[in-house]
């Protein structure tokens, strides 16, 4: 039996926008986050406190966090690769900080400029500080189903880093398909392996849709008991350090699937479609969401 309800973590304002080449104003980002909270999302990944040299689009993160309307009960999450990022996150009033590592050594080097082992040491300080400040701590694990630089990644490699993130005290761990190469059976194998290390209720599926497999992978994850999923409104996104990777699975498509399955999300699909159309108009292109575009055309 599938879960009766799921948590959707909207990552569009961060993962979705981080790779956009032209600068998007803080006002537009703020409007997007506000529209998403109004649509009923209870967890919105809103900003990223990384080096602006590495990811220029996220340089407005402090302004964005200061400008959004804080809706009660909503967790506004931000990425924090190190203590510098953590301090900025605390100053900005983030509710949850995200440390982000990789199951592949090669990607760890390209994305955060250090080995997996070094990243865990950097994250340890952030984890301790998060607990001391009563902040939720999430761990995100890139390349759990394949790496753009080293190719295959074994379920054991994923489980190994999951254990290390667990030991740092993560409340939730994202099993991420950075380049969207995972397929349904593989997804179940990896998810079932990591469940031996971390409670299934705290594991999430973060699927990019490069190869069109994300919805199938979500369904496959539901079948093995995963009940948290990440998605980007309008299918925004890509990772600057994973060339050619497309956006996250589109939130509208995920909501349409859940609605059809009778799985509760607490999110208003029509308002989400409007948020997707809003940001797509600002970016000057059509939303990538099939369901979103079909519903918008009605
Ligand atoms: P580094 O160069 O090794 O760091 O970068 P450093 O400590 O030597 O510092 C170098 C410079 O960066 C210094 O400035 C620091 O102050 C500055 P300078 O003295 O040269 O002027 N700096 C910072 N500035 C602002 N905020 C900070 C910060 N830290 C250092 N937090 C670092 C290491 C991790 C900082 C760098 O590699 C970086 O910023 N990487 C970010 C990569 C990134 O954001 N990738 C995308 C997000 S991950 C993702 O999308 C995957 C995910 O969606 C899951 C999936 O799909 O797989 C989560
Ligand atoms: Mg991602």
TrEMBL record:
According to the record, the signal peptide region is: none
The protein's matches in InterPro entries, at most eight in alphabetical order, are given as:
Aldolase_TIM, HMG_CoA_lyase_AS, HMGL, PYR_CT
If you read the UniProt record, what top EC class would you report for this enzyme, in one word? lyase
> Does Lyase appear among the keywords?
yes
Family note? Belongs to the HMG-CoA lyase family.
Looking at the keywords, is Protease present? no
The name on file for this protein is hydroxymethylglutaryl-CoA lyase
Recorded catalytic reaction(s): these are: (3S)-3-hydroxy-3-methylglutaryl-CoA = acetoacetate + acetyl-CoA
Which GO BP annotation is one of this protein's? L-leucine catabolic process
Q: Which EC number applies? A: 4.1.3.4
Q: Which domain of life is it from?
A: Bacteria
Task: Spell out the PANTHER family in the cross-references.
Answer: HYDROXYMETHYLGLUTARYL-COA LYASE
All copies of domain Pyruvate carboxyltransferase, residue ranges: 6-273
Against Pfam families, the record matches this protein to: HMGL-like
Q: Which UniProt keywords apply?
A: Lyase, Metal-binding
Which GO molecular function entries does the Swiss-Prot or TrEMBL record give? hydroxymethylglutaryl-CoA lyase activity; metal ion binding
Functional pathway: Metabolic intermediate metabolism; (S)-3-hydroxy-3-methylglutaryl-CoA degradation; acetoacetate from (S)-3-hydroxy-3-methylglutaryl-CoA: step 1/1
């Amino acid at each position: 039996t599938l879960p009766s309800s799921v948590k959707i973590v909207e990552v569009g304002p961060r993962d979705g926008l981080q790779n956009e080449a032209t600068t998007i104003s803080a006002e537009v980002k703020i409007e997007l986050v506000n529209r998403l909270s109004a649509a009923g999302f209870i967890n919105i990944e809103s900003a990223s406190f990384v080096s602006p040299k590495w990811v220029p689009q996220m340089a407005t993160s402090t302004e964005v966090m200061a400008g959004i309307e804080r809706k009660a009960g909503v967790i506004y999450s931000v990425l924090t690769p190190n203590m510098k990022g953590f301090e900025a996150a605390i100053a900005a009033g983030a509710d949850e900080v995200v440390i982000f590592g990789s199951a592949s050594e090669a990607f760890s080097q390209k994305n955060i400029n250090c080995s997996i082992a070094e990243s865990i040491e950097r994250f340890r300080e952030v984890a301790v500080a998060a607990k001391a400040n009563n902040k939720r701590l999430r761990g995100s694990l890139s390349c759990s189903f394949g790496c753009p630089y080293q190719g295959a990644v074994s379920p054991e490699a994923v489980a190994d880093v999951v254990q290390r993130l667990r030991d740092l005290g993560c409340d939730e761990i994202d099993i991420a398909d950075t380049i969207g190469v995972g397929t349904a059976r593989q997804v179940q194998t990896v998810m079932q392996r990591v469940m031996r290390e971390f409670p299934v209720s705290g594991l999430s599926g973060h699927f990019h849709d490069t190869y069109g497999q994300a919805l199938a992978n979500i369904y496959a994850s539901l079948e093995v008991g995963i009940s948290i999923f990440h998605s980007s409104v309008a299918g925004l996104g890509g990772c600057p350090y994973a060339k050619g990777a497309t956006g996250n699975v589109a939130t509208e498509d995920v909501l349409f699937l859940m609605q059809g399955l009778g799985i509760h999300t607490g999110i208003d699909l029509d308002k989400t479609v409007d948020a997707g159309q809003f940001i797509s108009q600002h970016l000057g292109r059509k939303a990538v969401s099939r369901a979103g575009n079909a519903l918008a055309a009605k």
